[in-house]
Amino acid sequence: MRIAIIGTGYVGLVSGACFSDFGHDVVCVDKDESKIDALLKGVMPIFEPGLDQLVERNVRQGRLSFTTDLAKGVNGAEAIFIAVGTPSRRGDGHADLSYVYGVAHEIAAALTGPAVVVTKSTVPVGTGDEVERILREVAPNAEVSVCSNPEFLREGAAIEDFKRPDRIVIGVEDARAEDVMRDVYRPLYLNRAPILFTSRRTAELIKYAANAFLATKITFINEIADLCEEVGADVQDVSRGIGLDNRIGPKFLHAGPGYGGSCFPKDTLALLKTAEDYQSPVHIVEAVVKVNDARKRAMGRKVIKALGEEPRGKTVALLGLTFKPNTDDMRDAPSIAIFQALEDAGVHVRGYDPEGVEQARPLMPGMTFCDTPYAAAEGADAVVLVTEWDVLRALDLKRLKSTMAGDVLVDLRNVYRPQEVIAAGFQWQGVGKPMRGRTGSIEVAEREPVSV
Length: 452
Known about the structure:
Elements: E1 2-6, H1 10-21, E2 25-29, H2 33-40, H3 51-60, E3 64-67, H4 70-74, E4 79-82, H5 98-110, E5 115-119, H6 127-138, E6 144-148, H7 158-163, E7 168-171, H8 175-184, H9 186-190, E8 195-198, H10 200-231, H11 235-243, H12 264-277, H13 283-306, E9 315-319, H14 334-344, E10 348-352, H15 357-360, E11 368-369, H16 373-377, E12 382-385, H17 397-403, E13 408-411, H18 418-423, E14 427-429
Parallel strand pairs: 1-2, 1-4, 2-3, 4-5, 5-6, 7-8, 9-10, 9-12, 10-11, 12-13, 13-14
């Protein structure tokens, strides 16, 4: 099939590369000439493991191309995917759909034959209706259908998620669109990937409901972690204990500094605004957003408290800055709020991240960026593990301690066993773990983890 994808951001580029790897003829369109020029030279605009090799292979084999000419890109395309950004709109928090609607106008003016226009971007309920209205208004004689095909890609594992998905959701309103979308996803259908056809509005809501539910799981276990610290329980054992229940499951039950990234913060807020517009409040999601926003700053206060009575003038090393591992995405990363809290308290902050430094620089202008975690820890009074990159999971703790001026290690991801951290000469703090003493000497009674 010939497929056009409008937008070469995270979703558009990954989708285009994967569709071409299925054997489709794919052209990716973007107005940003510098981005297209870079892609033509094999330079990726984002960090995603394996994406550069996937793009290079399919460009070399002639199945994937890039252009700034939308009319050229959609010419002859049987399926046209809209994969542009839908950021939170300033002022009211609604999803900004101006890019989606602008692209719809351009597509309508460029149509040369039958096509299915697919909203791949995350959009509020009813967006597909407006896209269809625009297409009918601008190109009343065009043979065109509109469907919704939300993405469920995890940054850092997007290619695997696209090729081996938990499910493929497609919202259609006519048989022709369903037939075309079956052909688009035929390679996955042959691999028995679950394909769920729904109405268009249902598909649009599924995406928001899924992200809101996952955000709720994260926020729930984070609040349970706080309770664990107060009552002397271990949140990791609590997570295992409830996650073994098949009705709950173990995923997204890892306590930490709160969720961030390009999806959960934006999508939960957009869902709240949609519910508000329809006068059907979603109070649970409202609480999730409020609690998660407060948690990030609270993690900063946690670090400040670990520094002792007078934090001003002390130095803290933040290890891991991106919102999660295996991405360079800094959007709504917990490290930003933690840094701001530390800076407000007069603390000097040094930082390290394997991929996110260039994206972090404009967001953290007062931070000193370092090339290695050990360089970041040099002269620091405390080290804080914020993002659990693989390179940060097996640090030489004694070497780390020897470079520091202080002896505090705050593990916001519970990566390290408290006993080994203390044996290396650190004062230790985790998240939701039993301890005695708030600062100074911390004693930990730890048993072997339960096998599951």
